[in-house]
Design brief:
The complex is a heterodimer of chains A (334) and B (543). Chain A is built from 15 helices and 10 strands. Chain A is an alpha/beta fold. In chain A, α2 (31-45) runs antiparallel to α12, α6 (159-172) packs across α7 and α7 (174-187) packs across α15 (320-329). The radius of gyration of chain A is 21 Å and the shape is globular. Chain B has 2 domains: 24-267, MetI-like fold, CATH 1.10.3720.10; 312-542, Orthogonal Bundle (MetI-like fold). Chain B is globular. Helices cover 76% and strands 1% of the residues of chain B. Chain B has 543 residues and is an all-alpha fold. A two-stranded parallel ribbon of chain B has the order 1-2. Classes of the chains: A alpha/beta (334), B mainly alpha (543).
């Protein structure tokens, strides 16, 4: 009887049959970025990859699905998502010698609960015509009244900006960071809106002279026929080179606690941390690979070497909730 | 005694439907009561009031603008003769097929500094920088109001027009004989008579507006909906997010109840077989052309400009934008939309029928709670749906423990979740349209049917449903098109390797690459046009 009911339900809900040799991925990262890497993985190993891509809510989905979850891996586009998954107890240790030798310890969770796959810098773009290159710029300076009405950024609540604000709190404390936020808000040319690419576009249009944005967008825009002219109108600057270095964020991967295809999932993680995939990340997505010795894309290399802020991501992420509170308190987005 | 029994069956059915469709909401409310008010009070002390005022302005603005567009249009096409009327009658529905987020992106592209409009102006007047001139910024609260109203006015237009058609226009004729001008007759006869239908449509529009995330987010207008997202995804507090959703729903519930109470004694059932040609006013000469101009203008703004922009993108970027999987995506979208439309209509007929024949004080309750899902933002609804479904899955797996079967996520991991979520979200539309038609069937018809010895089921099947045909078709069409367009819930609830047209569009628009999404977006519009055409044709045939 039970069998009959289960069979019937399976038929009614169009339950997909799962193959033996596969790996299931929840991805915050867009398909066109990771699909080439996944296809290559399938070609090499014969393991099929299945993806659900969404920008919001996947963590909640894993949480609610509990031990029946089909997801073996979660690919995230920032460190706070990985740390949240870890805090919720939804991850397990990525036990792999290969991963450990590929990825430096500072880009792995000490306990192996997450691994970073790529690095990206929170850059400041400056108008070629109106400002020129800003070699000595610091994030702190964005609050300087000399930039009044000249700064564009996306919402303060976006993970990339939250990461930056959290790192400011880590370096300067709460009070000073709040003052800094008030200063930056006063300097905004318009209410925070759009995404990182839209900010560069606004600089080109003359709506602002300075914009915050992640490094790889600059490279991506250079290769897009419509957006190339936006990118051509700005210089890319690496802030705080004179002191602590530029703020980094990472994209990464976790192995879910209840992964049904753990073997395959580990194979995929190993693949993603190895030369071929790291190269693809670097060349097609213009990101900084985490594996030492992997070559940068020509374009990214042309931006020059830079100093990274060495504060551990796990340390920065502690201040994320506070960063969000401050953003609300100063009404940064309103 | 016999009657009592029969009634209780209908009652049970309606209550079961109502409760099933409101489980996600109930779980969300339960979630919101889980203590933890720190985040909420922090919001209360900082930004929540700004969010509330933005939300109120947004809804008020959209309602006013939709009414300004749709009421004259509905009245013109129902009662007047003017050049092009036959075409406008159905063409004015076209903007419904346009997703709000697409129209918002298109207009932003057109009107921003680098867009063709401002470039043209700069060339024309010789301006060189943004400092030389003022141009309105579309990414503002008023901009959002215009975008949303352009997409949502067809609800009001359609429901109002249907109401006018099914009203006795003897009254309008009488008003004509008594010397009222067309405008006076519109104000004093048509509007009051269709009040119920108008309010039902406005309620739908305000719920849809409240749930909109994509547009307000893109325009950087912080509303309660964006606050729900912030608290849940930023503060990691589903509890506080659920609390905010709760506030939104409470508003809605109170507003709807008040309206219902004020309407209690004013039901007019007088209906005649709908006559297709109810043209009372021949608008000739200048007024006729004015009517034509007004209709044309609305259509150009709400439909032809966005479609034109998408088309030009699709042609320019065809090689990059074309994808062999389109037909597959279109099929997935179509399939889901069909399932949901049929289910939603079937359920709403049962619930509304019970409202009609029930004698209990609470007879309106099932319909009301079932409709609440419409005001939930898509992603929040998706989570609210996952709460009961994952529990259910867990229970099922434990129940089958030991049989060697482990179905896994039978409900939450398959398209069942998506279909269920859509039924919960769009049931309100189906009910609104079905209700509006039911109200116009006079109770004397039910009595006549009963006196001929027919029971309730026979009355429903043989008398009501044939009379409701138009309302049912309308309801089905609206639900279908909404499903085609829906994005946030689809993103989060879909099974592995499952794409709909909307999710495919989203991949690109979120990166400012609307041109690459243009073909998919056109597909959404095209597939939405098919039922529009079919419904229109069947309406023509009926009359």
């Amino acid at each position: 009887m039970k069998r009959a009911i289960a069979t019937l339900l399976t038929a009614v809900t169009c339950m997909p049959a799962f193959a033996a040799d596969e790996v299931n991925i929840y991805s915050f990262r867009q398909p066109f970025l990771i699909q080439p890497i996944l296809d290559d993985f399938t070609k090499q190993t014969g393991i099929k990859t299945n993806v659900v891509f969404a920008k919001k809510g996947l963590i909640e989905r894993v949480k609610r699905e509990g031990k029946h979850s089909r997801a073996d891996l979660v690919l995230t586009s920032n460190f706070s998502a990985m740390i949240q998954l870890e805090d919720l107890g939804l991850t397990q240790k990525i036990a792999s010698k290969a991963v450990e030798s590929n990825i430096p310890a500072s880009f792995r969770d000490p306990d192996g609960q997450w691994v970073a796959l790529t690095k990206r810098v929170r850059n400041v773009y400056s108008s070629k015509v109106r400002l020129g290159k800003l070699e000595a710029l610091s994030y702190e300076e964005l609050a300087d009244p000399k930039y009044k009405g000249k700064i564009c950024t996306r919402s303060g609540k976006h993970p990339y900006n939250l990461g930056l604000v959290a790192s400011m709190i880590a370096h300067h404390g709460e009070t000073e960071t709040k003052e800094w936020l008030v200063g930056v808000k006063k300097n905004l040319a318009r209410k925070p809106q759009g995404n990182d690419r839209a900010q560069v576009k606004a600089v080109k249009e003359g709506l602002c002279d300075i914009a915050l944005g992640n490094s790889y967008y600059f490279g991506k825009m250079m290769t897009d026929e419509k957006q190339k002219s936006w990118a051509d109108s700005v210089y890319i600057n690496f802030p705080n080179q004179k002191n602590r270095g530029s703020h980094l964020n990472v994209s990464g991967v976790v192995l879910t606690k209840y992964a049904k295809n753990k073997e395959n999932a580990l194979k995929l993680i190993e693949f993603m941390t190895d030369n071929k995939a790291q190269n693809m990340y670097a060349s097609t997505n213009m990101e900084y690979p985490v594996k030492p010795g992997v070559e940068l894309s020509k374009m990214v290399a042309s931006w020059g070497a830079f100093k990274e802020d060495s504060l551990p991501l796990a340390e920065i992420s502690k201040y994320r909730p506070l960063a969000l509170k401050l953003i609300d308190e100063v009404k940064f987005d309103l | 005694m016999q009657l009592k029994n029969k009634l209780s069956n209908w009652q049970i059915t309606a209550w079961v439907i109502g409760l099933c469709l409101s489980t996600p909401l109930a779980f969300l409310i339960f979630e919101s009561l889980q203590g933890e008010s720190e985040v909420f009070s922090h919001l209360w002390n900082t930004v929540l009031w700004d969010y509330i005022s933005n939300t109120v302005w947004l809804i008020v603005g959209v309602l006013l603008l939709s009414a300004l567009i749709a009421l004259p249009l509905g009245w013109l096409t129902a009662y007047c003769h003017f050049p092009g009327k036959r075409i406008f009658e159905w063409a004015l529905m076209l903007p419904l097929a346009m997703p709000t987020y697409i129209i918002a992106y298109v207009y932003t592209d057109l009107l921003d500094y680098a867009g063709p409009v401002q470039i043209f102006l700069r060339d024309w007047f010789g301006w060189t920088s943004p400092d030389d001139y003022w141009f309105f910024d579309i990414r503002t609260l008023p901009g959002a109001i215009v975008m949303i109203a352009l997409v949502l006015y067809p609800y009001l237009y359609l429901i109002f027009k249907t109401a006018l058609r099914e009203q006795s226009f003897k009254l309008v004729q009488a008003s004509q004989l008594m010397g009222l001008s067309p405008f006076q007759s519109f104000l004093k006869v048509s509007l009051p008579l269709s009040r119920g239908a108008i309010v039902a449509a406005l309620a739908l529009i305000s719920m849809e507006t409240m749930a909109d995330f994509a547009t307000v987010h893109y325009f950087a207008v912080s509303t309660l909906t964006t606050a729900v997202y912030d608290t849940w995804l930023g503060y990691y507090s589903l509890t506080a997010a659920a609390k905010i959703s709760g506030i939104m729903l409470l508003f809605l519930f109170v507003a709807l109840s008040l309206e219902k109470m004020s309407r209690k004694s004013k039901v007019v059932h007088e209906r005649q077989s709908s006559v297709n040609d109810t043209s009372l006013y021949k608008l000739s000469g200048k007024s006729g052309w004015l009517a034509t101009l007004f209709c044309t203008l609305v259509l150009i703004l709400a439909f032809f400009i966005p479609v034109g922009v998408l088309l030009s993108y699709a042609i320019d970027y065809f090689d990059q934008a074309w994808n062999d999987a389109f037909f597959n995506y279109a099929w997935q979208s179509l399939k889901i939309s069909l399932y949901v439309s049929v289910i939603a209509i079937f359920l709403s007929i049962l619930v509304v029928f019970y409202q009609r024949i029930g004698e209990q004080k609470s007879k309106g309750f099932p319909g009301k709670v079932a409709s609440m899902g419409y005001a939930l933002p898509g992603t929040v609804l998706a989570i609210a749906v996952l709460l009961p479904l994952t529990l259910f899955d867990d229970y099922l797996n434990r129940w089958l423990d030991g049989t060697g079967l482990e179905p896994g996520l039978l409900f939450s991991g398959t398209i069942f979740a998506l279909v269920f979520a859509y039924v919960v979200r769009f049931y309100a539309i189906a009910q609104g349209a079905v209700e509006a038609s039911f109200v116009r069937i006079s109770p004397s018809i039910d009595m006549a049917s009963a006196s001929l010895g027919k029971n309730n089921l026979q009355t429903l099947g043989r008398v009501h449903i044939p009379l409701l045909k138009r309302g049912i078709l309308t309801a089905g069409l609206l639900v279908f098109i909404e499903c085609m367009k829906e994005l946030p819930a689809a993103l989060l609830l879909r099974p592995f390797n499952f794409e709909t047209l909307a999710t495919h569009v989203f991949q690109f628009v979120s990166d400012e690459q609307l041109e690459l999404a243009s073909i998919s977006a056109l597909f959404i519009v095209l597939v939405g046009l098919i039922p529009l055409y079919l419904v229109n044709r069947s309406m023509e045939q009926q009359s």
